[in-house]
Amino acid sequence: MREHDIIAWDGTKIRTWQVPGEGTPVLLCPGVGSGPESWPSLTGRAGLLSWYMRGTMGSDRPVDERNISLDDHVSDAISTLDDAGVERCVVMGWSMGVTVAAELALRHPERVAGLLLVAGAPGDSFDAMLPLVPRNVRRIVGLTGTKLLQQAGPVLDRVLHRLPVTDATTFLLRHSGVIKPSSDPKDVGHAVSRFLQHDWRWYFTLALALGETPRQDLSPIVCPITLLAGRDDVLATTESMAGPVSALPQARLRVLPCSHYLPLEAPEVVSDELDLLLDRVRSVDFATSGRS
């Protein structure tokens, strides 16, 4: 994997990464604070490219810390594509990265050939959380909880930065309901080791800014879409994912026995569904060129 830095519209240094080699380009819109370690089945796929969100994993915080809105993340996605010389490609999104991927397709349909949306609702993320909580209070509970975690950031730093990631740690994670046992222990350990080192106040600041995006109207999107939902996901219910695309003729929904960490728990399915989506995109492009 190759990493290098680009400069965003406001002068912020953004670290991008790309799997080198000849391959169909695919842009990954990351979840908040996530990196390539969360996608074990794709990190060897030539053509995959992405970036690290502002203030995480090598990307700088913006000088104006208000520049972490959906507009800024979409701009960083476009800058990543432009820097790589990619005019149009399939776009993936995970968790709150689904909001970024969907907005990219809405604003720049000429750049997005297809969408693979994984374990995330298109906007209004706090309303999509906590399926066991009554729907009329989900947003309040999710928003309040995230704000409390933001305030607890310095305490979380002191604890989580010192937490050793061992076989015992990954075993507990995989059998606690946070991550399913179907995940590979080595993949989980690799992903968790880096994830725990976040500045947690900043992490939840990013989540609050992006999570309060209103629910997006996806009706203008005409490209092929695949949604992968986790049946046991407490951060993005299947209903919140399926509802916005239910009327779209090009949408495919697959529900898996997974949690929010679906890319770690069903990596082969993610890879297979991406291949199927790429085939659908090629079929649509072929049909469209024939009509032309």
Walk me through the structure.
This protein is α/β, with parallel strands linked by helices and 292 residues long. It has one domain (2-290): Rossmann fold (3-Layer(aba) Sandwich), CATH 3.40.50.1820. Helices cover 40% and strands 15% of the residues. It is built from 10 helices and 8 strands. The protein has helices at 70-84, 97-107, 135-151, 153-160, 167-174, 185-195, 200-211, 238-242, 262-265, 267-291; strands at residues 2-7, 13-18, 26-29, 48-51, 89-94, 112-118, 225-230, 251-256. The chain has an 8-stranded mixed β-sheet, sandwiched between helices. Helix 1 (70-84) packs across helix 2 (97-107), helix 4 (153-160) crosses helix 7 and helix 5 (167-174) crosses helix 6. It starts with a strand and ends with a helix. 46% of the residues are buried.
Strand portion: 15-25%
What is the subunit organization of this protein? Answer: single chain
| Average pLDDT for all residues | 93
Helical/strand content category: alpha/beta
CATH topology (level 3) name: Rossmann fold
Number of domains: 1
CATH superfamily: Alpha/Beta hydrolase fold, catalytic domain
Count of DSSP strands:
8
CATH architecture label: 3-Layer(aba) Sandwich
The helix/strand series, from N terminus to C terminus, equals EEEEHEHEHHHHHEHEHH
First-residue to last-residue Cα separation? 38 Å
Radius of gyration from the CA trace? Answer: 18 Å
Share of helical residues:
25-40%
Apparent shape: globular
Main sheet attributes: strand count, strand direction, barrel closure: 8 strands, mixed
Question: What is the tally of helical segments?
Answer: 10
CATH class: Alpha Beta
Low-confidence stretches: none
Which sequence of strands runs across the widest sheet? 1-2-4-3-5-6-7-8
Domain AB hydrolase-1: 25-267
Protein name: Pimeloyl-ACP methyl ester carboxylesterase
GO molecular function, one term: catalytic activity
